[in-house]
Amino acid sequence: MDHLLDYVSRVCESTSIAELWDIHCAAMKEFGFDRLVYGCTHFTTPTSLGPREDALILSSHPPEYVKLLYSEDELYRHSPMIEWASNNSGACSWSWVHQNAHRLSEKGLKVREINRQMNVTAGYTISFPVSAKQARAVMALTAQAGLSQDEVDRIWVSDGKEIEMMNHVAHLKIMSLPHETARARLSSRQREVLEWVGTGKTNQDIATIMGVSPATVEKHLRIAREKLGVNTTAQAILKIAYLNQIRSPHS
After folding, report:
1. Were 160 and a residue from 41, 46, 156, 230 both cysteine, which residue would form a disulfide, CB within 3.0 to 4.6 Å?
2. Where are the beta strands (DSSP E) in the chain?
């Protein structure tokens, strides 16, 4: 219990996703899970996980593995456990893959083969409950090389409730922190003008507050819209709100 309380305390006190991720990866390694992937998006559609650029993806896998699955081919979209997570919440043993191998697509089979080559063969996936229709968040826990799925399932029988709770705590903390996706790398000035628009200020108001011209304000807004991949300033404000960048302490 002291170990769990210490973990929760450290996670709650973390001030950045990088700090939290280091804490969480170290904690999961103690249970035998030494490679993790966390993915979250607020922009799914009925038929897609949404653009890769709008997803937050954290990984402790070797770079070569990340490159194979998250490159231009985006094979991660066809991962068997992503298929499970798209329709379920809770924790699932990777024995599901073996039980449903006959259902895998050609690309799903390719992902399974890459996983075999990289010793990503035993583990658990947690699909988190979400409150927004277009949101989806998943944690994939890969067991250390040498552990069979049967051994991992026994670990889960013994410690699964604690592991699942720790992952839920990490997920909820991530959701509360400002984070950047591959697309959403705004400058502090671009975020600031969006924040002022969000409070109801006009471009002229913002120009006076920031000590710049209205044309400069519009330039910041235009570049912000382009970076975020949206057509309107209202859409841009909504997107950075999803990413907790409104009034971010890192602005």
Report:
1. 156
2. 33-41, 56-59, 90-93, 123-127, 136-143
